[in-house]
UniProtKB/TrEMBL annotation:
InterPro entries: TAT_signal_bac_arc (IPR019546). It comes from the Bacteria. Keywords: Molybdenum. This is Tat pathway signal protein.
Amino acid sequence: MKRRDFIKTTALGATGAVLGAQILQAEESKGSVAKYKIEAQYSIDFDSAEHTSLFIPMPSVVASNVHLQGNHASYKSMLNFGVPYLQVDFLKSAQKKQVHLSYEIASYQLNERLFETSDFVAMGRYERDDASVANIANQLKGTTPKESVRNFYAFIKHEMPKRQKALEGKENLPKRESLPWFATISQESMFVSLCHACGIKSAEVQGLKLGQNSVVKNAPRVEVYLQDSLLAFDFQNNHKEVFIPLNRHKDMQLDSALLATFGDAFALVDGRDLGNYESKLFEKRVSYTIV
């Protein structure tokens, strides 16, 4: 994987902008190529704010024909710690704040990544490296990395739910450390923990899933990088849906806010999380078409 430079552009005006290619374009592949056009519309109906910022996560793959329109005052293309995003700023106005973003991604580019390989080696905050995880990894380890990760997936997919169900009604144990390993970790984080215990590069990636009827959903999946291939594991049983990766970071710092994950657009109103206000003040619609 090679890191691709993020192209920073300047605003062309408050009413509209054309960003061009988000990441340096890869050479076009031969043959027929499916392209997915993502369209996202956001509106914030908050007229008393002095300053409003909207943060929109962008794909960590090559995107073309990127367009941004709206009544914003300015925007910035950002790349922090391998996380690409747009920061769109609005000034005080009685007018509803609106943004329309669109971009296209070719199918053959879906396996490209902005991440450095080293990002998949470091332990994340939500993963574990204690003895219990190492013991499970050793028991499930196969003769090859590919066999190992398939064993991990089967174990987490089928065994973890049984153990978690047995815990129902026992969440209020006197001490948190009394809880078994499977009580306080997600399936994705456990999968990555097992991979790292065996020296296999892996990460939980936030992204967009393209479902039926042009529906776009925010969802995570686990990606494993082997020497000769990329393997993707989905614990939500939607393997056939196209997945557009956004980023793999958690605890993402955006201005005055610290996000547990950054898979969806996020807004600050005078430095305060818009999520603290009525949900009807922030509307979004994300859809896709095949072009």
